[in-house]
Amino acid sequence: MISFPIIRVITKIIIPYILLFALYVQFHGDFGPGGGFQAGVIFASAIILYGLVYGLPAAKRVAPVKVVEKLIALGLVVYAGTGFLTMLLPLSKGGEAAQANFLNYETLNHSLNHEWVPGGQHLGIFLVELGVGITVTSVMIMIFYAFAGREPVDAKSGKSKIRRESAKS
Amino acid sequence: MIFIVIPILALLALTAVAVARIRDLWAAVMFTGIYSFLGASWMLILDAPDVAFTEAAVGAGISTVLMLATLALTGKKEKPSKVKVMPLIVVGITGAALIYGTFDMPAYGSAEAPIQQYPNPSFVEKSKEDMHGLPNVVTAVLASYRGYDTLGETAVIFTAGIAVLLILRKDQEGDA
Q: Is B176–A139 a contact, with Cβ atoms under 8 angstroms apart?
């Protein structure tokens, strides 16, 4: 697609909107439809689109393999970490061990202004969805890299399309 | 309503037949993308925007791209195959059994349907109070009431991603 200027220009124009929409779906998920899963795939699709049009190496410069690999695990750590945080917070305040429940967001309540700093259920859902979003985004990107970066199996059919484009860029 | 529902369902059926019949794999991949997009529209009509989002992004977007990436590595044409009788009979019987099973399902939107009865309607009524004002019940159930399940789901995605990487990356050590 390297020789199609319209596709290249249009891609550059719409990618910011795709990313913005993904962030909207992610962080507005507790008020409107959406959430971490949906936002993750939309965010990943923006990077995959970039990879399709500008070639795999260009996409790997935007989202390096080493970073995305680690983000796969980070998302899960954020989610489980929220769970452990809700267990540890009441214990640190001198509560009983029986009240320390995994993923009980009520313990995240605080006395700050809730307009500015979300607390309790809101903060818990926010953190958990963030973890889901990170994991889903990076898994989708990594699977795309793994698929698009492979050499053709059949020698007759020549190199893969994506491979050829990336070689030219 | 019926003027949207029937064309979408008819198009879904037509696309499914087209995917099964067509021998040009590139066209078949495009048809599966169209199928997913119609499915997303259908979910939107059923008032499930969350599912529609996912179907449009995963089904029509990412999986189509992955199929095309796979197609670039293999041939573009499906080898002609003979119609085999035995699989046709098995599929026919299974399909008939599934259709027979739908006769027992409650009518669409029926108030007596188990889905309206069982997860106590008070879930919907109480959620806003429980969540301190967050209006989206779907998110409340997904991330808070059933937060532990969603942790498991995220772990499943994590595991699936790692497994795909382990299999696909085997023969290009050092490249990535």
A: no
- Chain B nearest-CA distance from A139, in A, is 5
B109 Cβ contact partners less than 8 Å away, ≥ 6 residues apart = none
Phi, psi at residue B74, to the nearest 5°? -115, -165
Distance CA B59, CA B92 (A): 26
pTM score: 0.80
* CA A57 centroid distance within chain: 20
> Can you tell me the ipTM of this complex?
0.79
Per CB-CB distance under 8 Å, the chain B contacts of A135 are 154, 157-158, 161
Q: Which of B65, B127, B162, B168 to mutate to test the interface with A (most CBs of A within 10 A)?
A: B65
Are the C-beta atoms of residues B158 and A139 closer than 8 Å to each other? yes
The domain ranges of chain B are 1-77, 114-176
